[in-house]
Amino acid sequence: REPSGADTPLTPITDPNAQGKGNALFIVDADNGRLIWKARMDTTLDTQSSRVTLFGATHYQFRHPRLNYPIPSDVAAVDSTGDGRTDRLYFGDIGGQIWRVDMGGYSDDRTHIEDWKLSLLFNAGRNRANDSTADRRFFHKPAVVTRLFDSTGLFDGILIGSGNRANPLEDAVVNEFYLIKDRNVDTGQGAPAVRYFDDIIDLTAVDNCVVAGTCTDAQNALYANGWKLTLNQAGGCTSSTCGEKMLSSPAVFLGRIFFSTFLPGSAGGSCAPSEGTAYSYIISLNDASAIYDLD
User: Fold this and answer.
1) pLDDT computed for residue 10 by the predictor
2) How is the beta sheet containing 25-28 ordered, strand by strand?
């Protein structure tokens, strides 16, 4: 079931009670269902998790004031150290935000769960400027590629695209596909300072500067944070609001990103409904350039 409010316009981040449902993350013991840890919205921003007793049972919680949008997607689990234990999580919400959970210090006796924490990594939503055309929503699990390098150094790549799954025919939002470079590659560090959609470089142009090697210092600074690819390009779309959107999670293989989009068709009638069109992309992880022409 879609989260409450998923098919209605979102209220800007200044109203922390905008949604109030579906906006918590739970970690439970798979053997017995016991709650171990949860992240929830509160006006308080915690620096570490705290013990809470509820109905006679004890668990840990972490509070964050910006965790106020529903979370419909699966969570991406990462073993950043290769020891067989999940130590980091990433997920998006329908406010266009990407979150990181650090689970460093985990032990079988659960003595270090107070070190688990939630931090905001990226914000692509309309709460950046209260702009309805930026009402981007993340409904699907991000792909995570660890231990990547560029000229700035080491980073983990978080890949995700926006699209309103609850309203696939809407055409007012300019959706985008993102590679967010998380340079805090050690678990326990938390996310770096939150980045916004205008803090990363736009590589939509066919002759983008990364491919051409002509980026200015300012563009290189944006590229160090990540890149984005503006949708509304498929099918000869010439309007900035054609409604192209992602309705699935991306996949990554050998430096290539695979994802699909949906482009709503023009209004149909009872005898000839509009089905829309699906498109597939295969692009470079490094610079968003097309690997294959699938037209």
Assistant:
1) 45
2) 25-28, 35-41, 57-64, 50-54
**290 forms bridges with which residues in the sheet?**
283
Q: Which of 131, 169, 145 is nearest to 247 (CA)?
A: 169
State the alpha helices, DSSP H only, in the chain: 209-212, 217-223
- 49, amino acid identity: S
Question: 192 pLDDT band (50/70/90 cuts)?
Answer: very high
pTM of the full structure: 0.88
C-alpha dihedral, 278 to 284 to 285 to 288, nearest 10°: -70
Tokens of 89: 């999580």
DSSP string across 146-203: EEEEETTEEEEEEEEE---TT-TT--SS--EEEEEEE---STTS---S-EETTSSEE-
> What tokens appear for 121 in the block?
């990594």
Q: CB neighbours of 158 closer than 8 A, spacing ≥ 6?
A: 90, 98, 121, 122, 142, 143, 144, 178, 179, 180, 181, 182
- For residues 128 and 31, what is the distance between their CA atoms, to the nearest angstrom? 41
pLDDT in tens, 113-136: 889 999 999 999 877 666 777 889
CB atoms within 10 A of CB 209: 17
